[in-house]
Amino acid sequence: MDITPRISAPDPQGVSVNIDDDPDPDAAVFLALGCNDKGVWADCREALEAALARLRSEGVDVLARSSWWSSQAWPDPTDPPFLNGVVRVRTALDPHGLMVALERIEAAFGRERTRPNAPRTLDLDLIAYGRETFDREGLILPHPRAAERLFVMGPLAEIAPAWVHPVSGIDAETLARGATVGRDARPAG
């Protein structure tokens, strides 16, 4: 099975976006990345690029990536704005092992969990792990709120427009059009 991205195209801002036009639903693993507190980095874009590079050291290979999308902070738009993106990855880690690796990366980037939805140096979410659907040991798959967030579904639809949500049966493009949270999300310049 060839899971290499099939198309590479620049987005309107010149960022190389890998588009995977036919993800195998039994193998597609998607992660969302977000930042609205640059921490020690020059800006959130640099922090997110560094996070992408760090994934490999945790046994996670990026197969396709979206452009970075900007949006107001949610639910408090007075917090700093977010930069978000989605990647399709390959890993030998099971879902729980992958979450442990993601939390390890967040901690290395200075993520502090002071209050829900507080500004953060790095937010890594497991959106989908193939067709897995479960709620156990603190992990819900697919991510329970991703489908309603444009800052997740927009980037996901950018790299895998035909991907179908394991529970709703709705494709990524349709979910992006119907997302109700983060309606201001747009590819960043």
Task: Write up what this structure looks like.
- The protein has 189 residues and is an alpha+beta fold.
- The strands form 3 sheets. Strands 3, 4, 5, 6, 7 and 10 form a 6-stranded antiparallel sheet that branches.
- Helix content is 24%, strand content 26%.
- The chain contains 4 helices and 10 strands; from the N terminus they run βββαβββαβββααβ.
- The chain starts with 6 loop residues before the first strand and ends with a strand.
Number of helices: 4
Rg over CA atoms, rounded to whole Å, is 15 Å
H-E order: EEEHEEEHEEEHHE
Tally of DSSP β-strands: 10
Instruction: Give the helix/strand class.
Output: alpha+beta
> Can you give the mean pLDDT?
87
End-to-end distance: 35 Å
Largest sheet: 6 strands, antiparallel
Q: Low-confidence runs (pLDDT<50, min 5 residues)? A: 1-16
Shape: globular
Residue share in helices? 10-25%
- Strand fraction: 25-35%
Give the gist of this structure.
This protein is of the alpha+beta class and 189 residues long.
Topology:
Blueprint: E1 7-10, E2 16-19, E3 29-35, H1 44-57, E4 60-65, E5 69-71, E6 82-91, H2 95-108, E7 123-129, E8 134-136, E9 139-141, H3 150-159, H4 172-178, E10 186-187
Antiparallel strand pairs: 1-2, 3-6, 3-7, 4-6, 5-6, 5-10, 8-9
Helix pairs in contact: 3-4
Question: Main attributes?
Answer:
two-stranded antiparallel sheet; single chain; alpha+beta
